[in-house]
Amino acid sequence: MSALLEVSGVSKSFDGFKAIDNLSFSIGEVELRAVIGPNGAGKTTFMDLVTGKTRPDSGTIRYGSLSRSLTGMSEARIAQAGIGRKFQKPTVFEDQTVVENLVMALKSPRNPFSVLIRRPPQRDRAATLAEQIGLDDALDRRAGELSHGQKQWLEIGMLLAQEPRVLLVDEPAAGMTTAEREKTTQMLVDAARTRAVVVIEHDMDFVRRLNCRVTVLHEGCVLAEGPLDHVCADPRVIDVYLGRDDDA
Ligand SMILES: Nc1ncnc2c1ncn2[C@@H]1O[C@H](COP(=O)(O)OP(=O)(O)OP(=O)(O)O)[C@@H](O)[C@H]1O
């Protein structure tokens, strides 16, 4: 499997504290990966480094066919290059409808007025995305009226509209009902059929349903990696993560 994203020997300290410590991590072109680990393990900082929000002190992050490292690029340029990120809190345009949100997010052309003049290809593409995220019966509803779970799906749809090659998703299941979690699992599994999807999650039932390779981070580096049952049986993982009631 060829790597789409390759993090090599990356370190990042905050005020002398090593949040990421010589981290090496790679993900394939088409892959679903869960990243788990105790609080403070460096999961969010890892995503901040990949998206350019935070600059590494050392190491390289290579992506796709780009010959240069992502580490010198701006956040906007990294996003344009095909790395999308979903934060924990949904950020949708509450006053716009579902279809308007999706049309605005479409890769090109980025023109909100196309919704008003109902340019068919864009509306059609938005409707297809709405179907993918289970909101096809809510196309003309204001995003502000949606439930928390539906807003999360809308944001996933808006990210998919950008046609990312890598999608980074931070704790998608937080605050969702069981039914919403199951739907979200399916959405991420489907999204990973054509791209790389990396999911940070604490909910182990959710991770189990993703049925994918798991990377366990601890103190800023990879503690274990492999199928969920394999990493869950690792005494080091039990010791630092699963065995601790406050983290599991
Ligand atoms: N901007 C920052 N300034 C100072 N310290 C930071 C900063 N960002 C992260 N850290 C520290 O780096 C460490 C790793 O934090 P990070 O948020 O990446 O962990 P995490 O694995 O995502 O944790 P959680 O599961 O609680 O979200 C923590 O000790 C955190 O306090």
UniProtKB/TrEMBL annotation:
Coiled-coil boundaries: none
Segments passing through the bilayer: none
Pfam family, one: ABC_tran
Cellular component GO terms, alphabetical: plasma membrane
Keywords: ATP-binding, Nucleotide-binding, Transport
SMART domains cross-referenced by the UniProt entry: AAA
GO molecular function, a single term: ATP binding
Ranges of residues in domain ABC transporter: 5-244
NCBIfam families given in the database record: urea_trans_UrtD
Protein name in UniProt: Urea transport system ATP-binding protein
Organism: Jannaschia helgolandensis
Organism lineage string: Bacteria, Pseudomonadati, Pseudomonadota, Alphaproteobacteria, Rhodobacterales
